[in-house]
Amino acid sequence: MQKWITATLLAGTLALVGCQSAYYGAMEKVGYHKRDIMVDRVQDAKESQEEAQEQFSSALEEMQALLAFDGGDLEDAYNKAKDEYESAQSAADEVSSRITKVEDVAEALFEEWQDEINEISKASLRRNSSNKLKETQRSYNSLVKSMRRAEAKMPPILTAMKDNMLYLKHNLNAQAVGAIKGEFSSLQTDISNLINEMNKSIAESNKFIESMESGS
Predict the structure, then answer these.
(1) Nearest-CA neighbor of 107 among 34, 215, 26?
(2) Which end of the chain has the least Cβ crowding within 10 Å, N or C?
(3) Within 10 A of 145 (CB to CB), how many other CB atoms are there?
(4) Residue 70: alpha-carbon gap to chain centroid
(5) Does Coiled coil show up as a keyword for this record (predicted)?
(6) Domain assignment present for 87
(7) Neighbours of 147 (CB within 10 A)
(8) Is residue 197 within 8 Å of residue 170, measured between CB atoms?
(9) Whole-angstrom Cα distance, residue 53 to residue 13?
């Protein structure tokens, strides 16, 4: 527990400085290696995708409620939909940030791994380690492609949501709500596709984490 607290404090301090090499070096001194950091960051990225799935679904539900508006406070329904859109935007930003952090530590890990392979004098051990590195890189590349594929589906959805929110902001009445109903079906389909793509990425993440933790 003490080791984890120390590592967390070091992470916070050095992340502010922005010196990744110093950060990784300091974490290694307290027994927290790049491999461990990578597993944790993949886990964080996976969790951010799960949260984004929930947030986009909530945004869709609030927009559906707004479009089904029939009496009551239209402005209140609009504000709820707007809040959910803004939360979806924040969730999308977090997904992108987490993926970038995975890429940062992967680059450092693979560079260190290759450097250390070059220091192995016995040919058979060097060959085995090199094969393991290539296998891990292939698995990682598949993972990141899956993450980025899911990520790429978010901006068009957010743009459509933003367009609707801005339109309604300037024309907040039943007629304006009716004018955007035609776009809802497309948005519904896009969000469904996003969630499916994220499920694939989450499955890839689980597989990658398992392989890293088992060492296989």
Answers:
(1) 34
(2) N
(3) 12
(4) 37
(5) yes
(6) yes
(7) 28
(8) no
(9) 31
- The 8-class DSSP code of residue 184 comes to H
Closest CA to 28 of 6, 1, 2: 6
Query: Residue 175 carries which side chain, given as an amino acid letter?
Result: Q
Terminal Cα distance for the chain, rounded = 27
The domain containing residue 171 runs over which residues? 33-214
Domain count, the chain: 1
Asked if residue 11 belongs to a domain, the reply is: no
Place of tokens 């689980």: 206
pTM for the complete prediction? Answer: 0.85
Residue type for position 36: D
* 216 residues of the chain, pLDDT tens digit each: 555 555 555 555 545 445 677 888 787 788 778 999 999 999 999 999 999 999 999 999 998 888 887 766 888 889 999 999 999 999 999 999 999 999 999 999 999 999 999 999 999 999 999 999 999 999 999 999 999 999 999 999 999 999 989 988 888 888 888 888 888 888 999 999 999 999 999 999 999 999 998 865
Structure tokens at 97: 């940030």
Give the C-alpha separation, 192 to 102, whole Å. Answer: 26
Measured in residues, the chain has a length of 216
Q: Which residues, other chains included, contact 126 with Cβ-Cβ below 8 Å and sequence gap of 6+?
A: 117, 120
Residue 205, in any domain of the structure: yes
